[in-house]
Amino acid sequence: MQIVIFGASASLAQPIIKYFKNKFKIYLISASSVKEKGSNIKLISLKNYSFVNIKNAVSQIPKKNTVFLFLNGSYDDQPFYKISNKKIQEIIKINLTLPLLATKTVLNFNISNKNKFIYFSSSRALKGDLGIAVYSATKTALNGLVRSFTQEYSNLDQEFYLFSLGLFKGGMESKLTEKVRKKLIDQTPNKKNVNKNDLIKTLKLILNSSALTGSTIKLDNGYS
Questions:
Q1: Which residues, 6 or more positions from 91, have their beta carbon under 8 angstroms from its beta carbon?
Q2: Residue 58 phi, psi dihedral angles, 5° rounding
Q3: Which CATH superfamily is domain 2-219 in?
Q4: Centroid of chain to Cα 21
C-alpha cells in the first residue's frame, strides 16, 4: 500500500506524513512549497491544479493499492456579496473541482487496484455558518460525491470516505478571529480543539478496515 496526499502543504498533512513515512511510500502533491523530506517521500510539485497537471501527477504514481487523501482547502475571505468572482472560482476549483478531476484520473489509471479515497470537509461547513457560503457549498458537495461514488464503484473495490473536521490547532483555525473561534469552541461539548492523534487513529482504522466505506466520519469533538 502507498499514500498520496493532495494539498500536502496543509498543516494537517504534517502529522500524517510524520506518522506514516516509515510505514508506507508517500507521494506529496502540492502547488505550494512542502518541506517534508525522507527516503519514503516523493514530492510532485504542480504549477497549478489544471487537469493536465493533475493527470501528469497521477501518472507518476505506481499502479498498486493506494490511499488518496484530499487535504486541499480554500475559503471565503470576505462577505459573499463582496467576494470577487476570481476568489469564488478559486474556492470551487480547489475544494471541489480538484478532488473530482483527481478521482476521475485515478479511476482511469488505477481502477484495477484497491483504492481508498478520503476527502476532508468541515463540520462547520456541513452545518452552515456566517461568512463561509462558498466554502460551505463546496465542502458540503463532497458528502454527495462520497455517497454516489460508493454506490457506483464499491463493486470494483473502490472505497470513499468523508472526514468532517472540527477545530485543529494551526492551519485554517489560526486564521479565525477570536470571536469566531470562541463561538465554535462554545458549540463543542468538551471545549477544546481536536487532537491530531485522533486523526491518525481514524486513518489507521480506515487503512485496516472497509466497513466504514461511504461514511461521513465526524472528527469534531461533538460539535453541533
A1: 74, 75, 76, 134, 135, 138
A2: -65, -35
A3: NAD(P)-binding Rossmann-like Domain (3.40.50.720)
A4: 18
Residue in the block written with cell 461511504: 214
Q: What is the pLDDT of residues 174-216, one digit of tens each?
A: 676 787 777 777 777 787 778 889 999 999 999 999 999 999 9
Average pLDDT over residues 20-28: 95
Q: Are 77 and 135 in contact (CB under 8 A)?
A: no
Long-range pairs, 146-150, Cβ under 8 A, ≥24: 146/119, 146/214, 146/215, 146/216, 147/214, 149/103, 149/117, 150/213, 150/214
Classified as helix, coil or strand, 59 is: helix
Distance in angstroms (rounded) separating the CA atoms of residues 128 and 148 = 22
Query: What predicted TM-score, i.e. pTM, was given to this entire model?
Result: 0.93
Question: First and final CA of the chain: distance in angstroms?
Answer: 35
Do the beta carbons of residue 202 and residue 219 sit within 8 Å?
Answer: yes
